């Protein structure tokens, strides 16, 4: 299994405060995108649609053609191969109005082999409240490829069962927002921090006057804003250009147990500690032996199992990190030992349990 060690050098030590745009730190409550979902049909496939066992596809086609005055006889299966049932999803950005277009993503629901060359029929897109907010239709762009030969051999590049329709949905209804009617604008910090919240309040009050902003907790900041829409938009534009010194965050070490990735952020330091990490290897080999009876003994030939067990342990010397060792020192020491990412995980977890690591360990 291939392992990788990714070291993120985010900042130089010592960590220095740096000013960043306010909108890089916060989200504005009431201004957000909204997800939509719908169920539709893709037609025009070259024999790569859903098979007959996908009953809801044929039922959907039957219900659709009834709207055009065509009634199939009872218990008749149209046996379609060029149609696929799909889910259609989209996200409407904040404040989008009727008539504007958004991209949609189409994904197969049944056992269609490919959606390449298909045409999405008109599909209503619903919000979480069940109301229709957009209509989607158009040609699907598929980035994947799936080819199968008569012998059963096949080749696939990416996924051919999903695609996109650029500007494929038209907004039909404005999603209401209370942003313009609120007396105050609420800012939510993306990374909760009392230091950052205090610095945001200090920067806003320093720019617009005392009492303009107040921190409710480590995440929420309330700001008094103009009531009229034109003045409020101008006020928010000035807020976007305001720069704030970001508070210090606790350094993080992230482990990905599935891929063996270890990401160590700059600012990670250790207290004085001595570490010894060894590897125990157990080897078991099977060498069955054939037992042959003596002549005229009346016995039978038998296979006798024979196992050889060997245990070995690497003798790695104990190494010491000095007080306040930096990220470079940690990585250089670990690399000099030829440690794998599994070893790095074990060492850092042991240091954290011993109280010698000033970082937050995150396992994903």
TrEMBL record:
Secretion signal span: 1-19
GO CC list: bacterial-type flagellum basal body, distal rod, P ring; outer membrane-bounded periplasmic space
Pfam families documented for this protein: FlgI
Keyword Magnesium: no
Keywords (A to Z) from UniProt: Bacterial flagellum, Cell projection, Cilium, Flagellum, Signal
GO MF, one example: structural molecule activity
This protein's record includes keyword Glycosyltransferase: no
Gene Ontology BP term (one): bacterial-type flagellum-dependent cell motility
Primary localization: other
Compartments reported by the entry: Bacterial flagellum basal body
Subunit structure: The basal body constitutes a major portion of the flagellar organelle and consists of four rings (L,P,S, and M) mounted on a central rod.
Role, per record: Assembles around the rod to form the L-ring and probably protects the motor/basal body from shearing forces during rotation.
Family: Belongs to the FlgI family.
Stated name of the protein: Flagellar P-ring protein
Gene that encodes it: flgI
